[in-house]
Amino acid sequence: MSNVNSVITYLQWDINRVLFELGPIKIRYYGLFFTAGFICGYLILRWMFRTENKNVDDVESLLIYMVIGTIIGARLGHCLFYHPAYFFEDPIRFLQIWKGGLASHGAAIGITLSAWLYSRKHTDQPLLWLLDRLAIPVALAGFFIRIGNFFNSEILGRTTDVPWAVVFKDGLGLKTLAAKMAPRHPVMLYESFCYGCIFLVLILVYRKYRAETPRGLLIGLFFIMVFSARFVLEFYKLRQAEFAQTLPLSVGQMLSIPLVIVGILLLIYRKPALPAVTDSTAKKT
Q1: Mean pLDDT in residue range 234-262
Q2: How far is 207 from 25, CA to CA, in rounded Å?
Q3: 200 Cβ partners below 8 Å, 6+ apart?
Q4: What is the pLDDT of residues 4-42, one digit of tens each?
Q5: Would you call 246 helix, strand, or coil by DSSP?
Q6: Which of 75, 120, 197, 201 is deepest in the core (most CB within 10 A)?
Q7: Residue pair 283/57 in contact by the 8 Å Cβ criterion
Q8: How many CA atoms does the CB half-sphere of 65 hold within 13 Å?
Q9: In whole angstroms, what is the distance from residue 127 CA to residue 116 CA?
């Protein structure tokens, strides 16, 4: 690094990951932001369902599907994509979610599968229509979750001497004192900012078209923007998967490429909007 290190005082980040304790229960910042993402998503979905005369009561059922799909998909994605040997060595580790380890690519798969299962029971909400609506709250949830990663001092960036670098004194995965004292890119905040911008783009597109939104438009934009951003930001991250340390691309980049391609195909082959719901008896509670 340059001599700028002798001039700049970097932010020393060593905040306690636990916000407060209630007896044996520990409330962590990460959990707080994770929950905030689902709460905001629930409210956004209610607004969209009400706007399009869908049964708003269905949102509660949809939320259950999404929570389960997100957690299972993200956990399996982390275990299988990044550390397969470690978890298959002792399969009980798959269940030890409290020790950390969730992957956004796995969450994307889990959410898609959960949406498919949900849509089979709600014929008025076909899969592509549903994924378009889910793209908006999921982008916002990504914004919150990456802030939670910052409070958790995880998904760390590479060392740098930029003025806004952060020293993660208790960074997960850092084993030496030199590594813990090195200023790094706060890449999780970069990612959070990107997801926040993507959320704004998607919500503006939806507000323009609302029920007339072509099917595949929003989820296509989501896949292209989210995973293009992820591909670029991976260059600023420490690699998580040990087996991929010497590969030209990281695991995150390799997983992002096919999802960007899926997004492009969705935009090319997007379908017309569903016929508008005009039934005055539709529930709007």
Answers
A1: 91
A2: 41
A3: none
A4: 454 578 999 999 999 988 888 888 999 999 999 999 999
A5: coil
A6: 75
A7: yes
A8: 21
A9: 6
Mean pLDDT of 247-260: 94
Starting at the edge strand that comes first in sequence, how are the strands of the sheet with 183-184 ordered? 11-13, 166-168, 183-184
Q: What would the two tokens of residue 214 be?
A: 């072509």
Single-letter amino acid, residue 8: I
Q: What is the largest CA-CA distance in the chain?
A: 70
- Nearest alpha-carbon partner for 145 in 199, 202, 191: 191
Helices (H), 52-180: 58-81, 84-89, 104-121, 127-152, 177-180
Q: How far apart are CA 201 and CA 115, in angstroms?
A: 22
Q: What is the pLDDT of residues 168-200, one digit of tens each?
A: 999 988 989 999 999 999 999 999 999 999 999
180/274 Cα distance (integer angstroms) = 53
Instruction: Take residue 184 and report the two structure tokens written for it.
Output: 């790094």
Taking each continuous run of H as one helix and of E as one strand, the counts in the chain are: 9, 5
